[in-house]
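It is worth pausing here to work through a concrete case rather than discussing structure prediction in the abstract. The textbook approach is simple: state the sequence, then state the predicted structure, then interpret. We follow exactly that order.
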Amino acid sequence: MGGAGRRRGGAARALLPLLLSLPLLLLLRAAGPGPPEEVTCGHGNGGCQHSCEDTAAGPECSCHPQSELHVDGRSCPERLDTALEVTEGSATSVADGDKRVKRRLLMETCAVGNGGCNRTCKDTATGVRCSCPVGFTLQPDGKTCRDVDECQTRNGGCDHVCRNTAGSFDCSCRKGFKLLTDEKSCQDVDECSLERTCDHSCINRPGSFACACNAGYTLYGFTHCGDTDECSVHNGGCQQVCVNTVGGYECQCLSGHTLHWNGKDCVEAEGAVAAGASPRVSLQCTRSAGGDRCSLSCRSGIHLSSGLQEAYSVTCGSSSPPRSKQRESAGSASGDVASVRTSVTFKLNGGICSLKKAEPFPEGLRPAPPVSCRAGTYYDGAQERCILCPDGTFQNEEGQITCEPCPRPENPGVQKTPEAWNVSECGGLCQPGEYSADGFAPCQLCALGTFQPEAGRTSCLPCGGGLPTKRLGATSFQDCETRVQCSPGHFYTTTHRCVRCPAGTYQPEFGKNSCVSCPGNTTTDFDGATNLTQCKNRRCGGELGDFTGYIESPNYPGNYPANAECTWVINPPPKRRILVVVPEIFLPIEDDCGDFLVMRKTASRGSATTYETCQTYERPIAFTSRSRRLWIQFKSNEGNSAKGFQVPYVTYDDARGGGRT
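Step two, the predicted structure:
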């Protein structure tokens, strides 16, 4: 009943302005047949537009000073003389007065429907007044509050990302930046200042970083460096034997051959020395200002004996060189050395080579110069400083006292500028697709059916299987006219088939005849890999007992391998508990929980479980283990892979003490 009355009262108030314009007689007629209800000021203000007063005869209406009572006894039109005298400002006041009266007549108060206000309502002498909280603006209807989108104006003052919220806004930074205390500015995170960011070198960049590896290593998993197996591709370029080493490789030659200056080709040893025989000393000379420059070398055992005027005669190639010893008497000396090189101004006396003022030192005992000269220079003892290697010589090592002669000293026209640091700087090298007996001009083009991808070589590589090349001077196997085109992940064989790269290798290019070995201890999940990113380190798990540490999925931050199973056990010192932080974890959701991480007290499924997930979460979570010992396991299936996780932990004193649980 009360509810119905309120609804009828509300409808009456809504119709009141219209009803006020009708004469009381019409209202009575509209009521229909039957005795009329008693009219009072308490019902519809007695039909009065302004003021109403109950009398014995019924409601008596009166008007405000600026109005006069209409002949209907109810309405209050504005007095004509007052309307002519009022100014524009006072006219507004009258209009406002009418509005205030109407609000009173409509019973508009904050107690009823919050005065119609969307947010804050306040009763005043002139009616209700609506207002809005910070972050909102009052709309023209004087009732509604609308959110202010601060991000529309100068991005809300945010450096990077502005996100509007109800009544406010939030600033955030792009990945690789951090939000400063003003909650608007973003600063680059220097990842290189953090420990274990990169295995070798770290290069910080705005919003990111890059890792680089030392020579002889390959980057994998974004941050890790593994040894490169150079011998896996074209035998490392070695003509005969390739031996991979940590951070490098070596080419070796079979018996009866020696390694060419290019370090890859093998040449037949000139005048192979029989046991006990002594080959001639290798002596190469160049003419320079003030005399001839001589470089003498001996690759095997050496014996030096004193002669006249402090000169020494040299014997090389002794099959049983004498043991190292020094004798002050008789002015002679001998020693076991692998090689001796010296460079002096010389003269030839009766065909005998004399090295004046040269001093022999056993291998490893030669005194180092006081200054370590860089490659491309040598230390001159007379001038006591480093000197650039002269034209026609080179030096590819640091801290040397001589420079090596270029293979073509008699042809200075092909020499480059001084400071040659490698034999290739000597100039005149055969280019890729060319070869010569010593790797220098004049050169020949590789014959049909062969190719050569490197400069300074003495031979070309065969295509194999009787395959021809498209042209003379081919520079790669892709110039060989194979019968089929092998796709990435495959290599071409001499039986003219494409074979999938075996596990642990990959091939990203078309038309190759080899696969590249994965770096370091990495391998691929399956055969036929097409990219280095498919090489993954499977190492994981172990016993952890330090005060602090971390666990991470194998190959992190690269994608973890398939069918991985890792188990860690954290056993902290006595009376300490384990606090674990999971900053973020990436597991593929489409695998139906095929990959998961679980942490509990023991390996038993019934033991207390602290944490378990098979989903991706990018918001950090921290928790204390429910036991003083934590067993952790990560498993992946052979389906999709993801970045995984890196979870740090720290142990702390357990105030409650007690034994281990």
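Step three, interpretation. Residues 1-36, 272-281, 299-366, 409-415 have pLDDT under 50 and may be disordered. Helices lie at 2-20, 24-30, 80-85, 88-105.
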